[in-house]
Protein backbone atom coordinates (compact mmCIF):
# COMPACT_ATOMS: atom_id res chain seq x y z
CA UNK A 1 0.00 0.00 0.00
CA UNK A 2 2.87 2.37 0.79
CA UNK A 3 4.06 2.31 -2.83
CA UNK A 4 0.56 3.25 -3.98
CA UNK A 5 0.40 6.12 -1.47
CA UNK A 6 3.75 7.45 -2.67
CA UNK A 7 2.54 7.31 -6.29
CA UNK A 8 -0.73 9.04 -5.33
CA UNK A 9 1.20 11.82 -3.57
CA UNK A 10 3.46 12.22 -6.60
CA UNK A 11 0.42 12.37 -8.90
CA UNK A 12 -1.20 15.03 -6.68
CA UNK A 13 1.99 17.08 -6.77
CA UNK A 14 2.06 16.81 -10.58
CA UNK A 15 -1.59 17.88 -10.78
CA UNK A 16 -1.02 21.13 -8.90
CA UNK A 17 -1.85 24.26 -10.84
CA UNK A 18 1.32 26.09 -11.84
CA UNK A 19 2.08 29.05 -9.64
CA UNK A 20 0.82 32.30 -10.98
CA UNK A 21 1.98 35.84 -10.50
CA UNK A 22 1.12 37.10 -6.99
CA UNK A 23 -1.90 39.39 -6.70
CA UNK A 24 0.09 42.45 -5.63
CA UNK A 25 2.20 42.37 -8.78
CA UNK A 26 -0.62 42.18 -11.32
CA UNK A 27 -1.38 45.24 -13.36
CA UNK A 28 -5.13 45.72 -13.03
CA UNK A 29 -4.84 48.94 -14.95
CA UNK A 30 -3.96 46.70 -17.91
CA UNK A 31 -7.16 46.38 -19.97
CA UNK A 32 -6.64 42.64 -20.67
CA UNK A 33 -6.35 41.82 -16.96
CA UNK A 34 -9.37 43.96 -16.15
CA UNK A 35 -11.41 42.25 -18.86
CA UNK A 36 -10.44 38.80 -17.52
CA UNK A 37 -11.53 39.90 -14.08
CA UNK A 38 -14.94 41.05 -15.32
CA UNK A 39 -15.33 37.86 -17.37
CA UNK A 40 -14.81 35.89 -14.15
CA UNK A 41 -17.36 38.04 -12.35
CA UNK A 42 -19.92 37.59 -15.13
CA UNK A 43 -19.35 33.81 -15.23
CA UNK A 44 -19.74 33.58 -11.47
CA UNK A 45 -22.91 35.66 -11.37
CA UNK A 46 -24.46 33.74 -14.26
CA UNK A 47 -23.93 30.42 -12.49
CA UNK A 48 -22.25 29.12 -15.64
CA UNK A 49 -19.16 27.82 -13.91
CA UNK A 50 -19.99 24.68 -12.09
CA UNK A 51 -17.28 22.11 -12.41
CA UNK A 52 -16.74 19.20 -10.08
CA UNK A 53 -13.46 19.32 -8.25
CA UNK A 54 -12.73 15.82 -9.57
CA UNK A 55 -12.89 17.20 -13.12
CA UNK A 56 -10.66 20.16 -12.27
CA UNK A 57 -7.87 18.23 -10.55
CA UNK A 58 -8.21 14.94 -12.42
CA UNK A 59 -8.81 12.58 -9.48
CA UNK A 60 -11.76 10.36 -8.59
CA UNK A 61 -12.97 8.91 -5.31
CA UNK A 62 -11.78 5.48 -6.38
CA UNK A 63 -8.16 6.65 -6.40
CA UNK A 64 -8.26 7.29 -2.66
CA UNK A 65 -7.96 4.12 -0.56
CA UNK A 66 -10.56 3.33 2.09
CA UNK A 67 -9.72 4.46 5.61
CA UNK A 68 -9.41 0.93 6.95
CA UNK A 69 -6.53 0.24 4.52
CA UNK A 70 -4.47 3.26 5.66
CA UNK A 71 -2.33 4.13 8.65
CA UNK A 72 -2.75 7.48 10.37
CA UNK A 73 0.54 8.67 8.85
CA UNK A 74 -0.58 7.67 5.36
CA UNK A 75 -3.89 9.50 5.81
CA UNK A 76 -2.03 12.55 7.13
CA UNK A 77 0.26 12.58 4.09
CA UNK A 78 -2.70 12.31 1.72
CA UNK A 79 -4.66 15.02 3.58
CA UNK A 80 -1.69 17.39 3.42
CA UNK A 81 -1.03 16.66 -0.27
CA UNK A 82 -4.71 16.94 -1.19
CA UNK A 83 -5.10 20.21 0.71
CA UNK A 84 -2.05 21.63 -1.05
CA UNK A 85 -3.44 20.50 -4.42
CA UNK A 86 -6.79 22.18 -3.77
CA UNK A 87 -5.02 25.35 -2.60
CA UNK A 88 -3.09 25.52 -5.88
CA UNK A 89 -6.50 25.93 -7.58
CA UNK A 90 -7.56 28.61 -5.07
CA UNK A 91 -9.81 26.20 -3.22
CA UNK A 92 -9.61 26.24 0.55
CA UNK A 93 -11.26 24.00 3.11
CA UNK A 94 -12.41 24.93 6.58
CA UNK A 95 -11.33 22.13 8.91
CA UNK A 96 -10.87 22.79 12.64
CA UNK A 97 -7.60 22.11 14.41
CA UNK A 98 -7.53 18.84 16.30
CA UNK A 99 -9.93 17.07 13.93
CA UNK A 100 -9.46 13.30 13.80
CA UNK A 101 -7.40 12.38 10.75
CA UNK A 102 -10.05 9.88 9.61
CA UNK A 103 -12.68 12.63 9.57
CA UNK A 104 -10.39 15.07 7.76
CA UNK A 105 -9.52 12.41 5.16
CA UNK A 106 -13.17 11.48 4.55
CA UNK A 107 -14.28 15.10 4.27
CA UNK A 108 -11.50 16.05 1.86
CA UNK A 109 -12.15 13.07 -0.40
CA UNK A 110 -15.86 13.99 -0.37
CA UNK A 111 -14.98 17.37 -1.93
CA UNK A 112 -14.31 15.64 -5.25
CA UNK A 113 -18.05 15.68 -5.89
CA UNK A 114 -18.51 19.36 -5.00
CA UNK A 115 -18.99 21.93 -7.72
CA UNK A 116 -16.88 25.06 -7.55
CA UNK A 117 -15.93 28.16 -9.48
CA UNK A 118 -12.36 28.43 -10.70
CA UNK A 119 -11.64 31.79 -12.23
CA UNK A 120 -8.60 33.23 -13.90
CA UNK A 121 -8.18 35.75 -11.10
CA UNK A 122 -7.06 35.51 -7.51
CA UNK A 123 -10.35 34.76 -5.77
CA UNK A 124 -10.67 31.75 -3.48
CA UNK A 125 -13.50 29.27 -3.18
CA UNK A 126 -14.03 28.21 0.43
CA UNK A 127 -15.51 24.80 1.14
CA UNK A 128 -17.28 24.65 4.47
CA UNK A 129 -18.44 21.33 5.83
CA UNK A 130 -20.48 22.71 8.72
CA UNK A 131 -23.95 24.04 7.95
CA UNK A 132 -24.15 25.76 11.39
CA UNK A 133 -26.58 23.17 12.71
CA UNK A 134 -25.09 21.58 15.83
CA UNK A 135 -27.13 18.39 15.42
CA UNK A 136 -25.66 17.76 11.95
CA UNK A 137 -22.17 19.16 12.43
CA UNK A 138 -19.39 16.77 11.34
CA UNK A 139 -16.92 18.36 13.77
CA UNK A 140 -18.68 17.77 17.09
CA UNK A 141 -17.12 19.71 19.94
CA UNK A 142 -14.40 21.14 17.68
CA UNK A 143 -16.78 23.23 15.63
CA UNK A 144 -17.43 26.93 15.96
CA UNK A 145 -21.14 26.43 15.14
CA UNK A 146 -21.83 26.44 18.89
CA UNK A 147 -20.46 29.97 19.03
CA UNK A 148 -22.56 30.90 16.00
CA UNK A 149 -25.70 29.51 17.65
CA UNK A 150 -24.87 31.30 20.92
CA UNK A 151 -24.38 34.58 19.04
CA UNK A 152 -27.61 34.05 17.08
CA UNK A 153 -29.59 33.32 20.27
CA UNK A 154 -28.15 36.40 22.00
CA UNK A 155 -29.09 38.56 19.01
CA UNK A 156 -32.62 37.11 19.01
CA UNK A 157 -33.00 37.86 22.72
CA UNK A 158 -31.70 41.40 22.19
CA UNK A 159 -34.18 41.89 19.35
CA UNK A 160 -37.07 40.62 21.52
CA UNK A 161 -35.97 42.94 24.30
CA UNK A 162 -35.88 45.89 21.88
CA UNK A 163 -39.35 45.04 20.55
CA UNK A 164 -40.76 44.77 24.09
CA UNK A 165 -39.31 48.19 24.93
CA UNK A 166 -41.02 49.73 21.89
CA UNK A 167 -44.46 48.48 22.92
UniProtKB/TrEMBL annotation:
Name of the protein this chain belongs to? Uncharacterized protein
Per the UniProt record, the source organism is Arcicella rosea
Amino acid sequence: MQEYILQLLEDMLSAERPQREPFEEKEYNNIDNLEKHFEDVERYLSGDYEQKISTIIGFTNEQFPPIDKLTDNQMLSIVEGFDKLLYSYNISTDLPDGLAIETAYSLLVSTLEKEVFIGEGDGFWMIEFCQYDIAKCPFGDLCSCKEFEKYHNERSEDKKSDEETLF
